[in-house]
């Protein structure tokens, strides 16, 4: 288990970009509501095609350049325009698509503590993976380091899964995601994980 002080150190620039991330700007974003503090971090998973890792398809999807004829599944997401602020690859590599100060289109119809439109006040992090497989040690290291730097910059009070804010509609990051592992590595208080038991 990596102790929090053994995590890589990420830094944010003045425009909300992590300097250590590969920057791949997506056109799928807009402005947050004025004076809306960022209080929530949302963890997702994604793989394109489903269950396949390591290709360019996820960035291509977020940048509206996916070849929808390249795989049968891609036809199902034709015309869909979404993004996330970050993607953590299986090897722990970090990619960023939208400035943290802008509103990425990751949560969809969602609600947190009675507040709807979670995109307005959240940052979205996609983990390359599926509901059916464990995530890698490298992904936890990157996610924990990212969580720490984001909480230093923004008033993030809670970390939740997509399934927590869109129950019945979404299932990610799935049953294999180790919430308490993230809590320990990112030095989160138990109350920062409002949907998880305090064990």
From TrEMBL:
It is an enzyme of class 3 (hydrolase). One of its GO terms (molecular function) is N-acetylmuramoyl-L-alanine amidase activity. It is found in: Cytoplasm. It catalyses: Hydrolyzes the link between N-acetylmuramoyl residues and L-amino acid residues in certain cell-wall glycopeptides. Residues 26-174 form the N-acetylmuramoyl-L-alanine amidase domain. Keywords: Cell wall biogenesis/degradation, Cytoplasm, Hydrolase, Metal-binding, Zinc. Its main location: cytoplasm. It comes from the Bacteria. One of its GO terms (biological process) is cell wall organization. GO terms for cellular component: cytoplasm. The keyword Secreted does not apply. Its EC number is 3.5.1.28. InterPro entries: Amidase/PGRP_sf, Amidase_domain, NAMLAA_amidase_2. Transmembrane segments: none annotated. Its cofactor is Zn(2+). PANTHER family: 1,6-ANHYDRO-N-ACETYLMURAMYL-L-ALANINE AMIDASE AMPD, N-ACETYLMURAMOYL-L-ALANINE AMIDASE AMID. Belongs to the N-acetylmuramoyl-L-alanine amidase 2 family. NCBIfam families: PRK11789.1. This is 1,6-anhydro-N-acetylmuramyl-L-alanine amidase AmpD. It comes from Pandoraea captiosa.
